[in-house]
Amino acid sequence: MLRCMLFTTGLVFLPCFAAAQDGPSFDCGTAESDAELLVCEDADLAALDRRLTETFAQALAVAEGLDAGAEEAADELRAMQRGWIGGRDECWQAEDLRDCVEGAYLRREAELVGMWMLAEPSSTVLYTCEDGSEVAGMFFDTALPSVRIDYGDSVDVGVLVPAASGARYEASFGSYLWTRGDEAMFSLRGAEATTCTASG
């Protein structure tokens, strides 16, 4: 916790405010995991942490404003965020701790933006697949480029990963959307991929 003497003149308040803005959203005095300690020491990661906290607050506001199921949606979102924190803290096992932590923040930010539509997509493409199904891709210019994938009753968010060609977006449980021009390969939860073509 930051301990600051606040005078009516505000002369001491300003340095304390600056320090709070430079650090992460959580109290570094109680940081325990390697990931948290690293974020406290790394200004860029601390800025990412503050940004994600703001993004999460925006998503939570959307969830709480739903016409139906708002309480359940908000509770689930909080639980998922706690789960994400646990996953971030598992980065101590990674070969490169910083890359893992940074990647965790960027992916979570993209997931929140796409899942809760916190920004306008840069483009939206409707794909018709060879089995007759349709996949809608809403692409977002998040720090880590991402796509919201709507398929039937399922919604997922994939993030851009290195690929030999085209743009491959990996989502959860083995799902992915791999675009090459007007064509895309889509796999739902690790199932055999199907070829899809952009409509129109």
UniProtKB/TrEMBL annotation:
Residue ranges annotated for the Lysozyme inhibitor LprI-like N-terminal domain, each copy included: 30-95
PANTHER family noted in UniProt: LIPOPROTEIN LPRI (PTHR37549:SF1)
Domain C-type lysozyme inhibitor intervals: 127-193
Gene3D superfamilies: 1.20.1270.180, 2.40.128.200
Record-linked Pfam families: LprI, MliC
Keywords: Lipoprotein, Membrane, Palmitate, Signal
Superkingdom of origin: Bacteria
Signal peptide, first to last residue: 1-20
Descriptive protein name: DUF1311 domain-containing protein
GO CC annotations on file: extracellular region
InterPro entries in the cross-refs: LprI-like_N (IPR009739), Lysozyme_Inhibitor_LprI (IPR052755), MliC (IPR018660), MliC_sf (IPR036328)
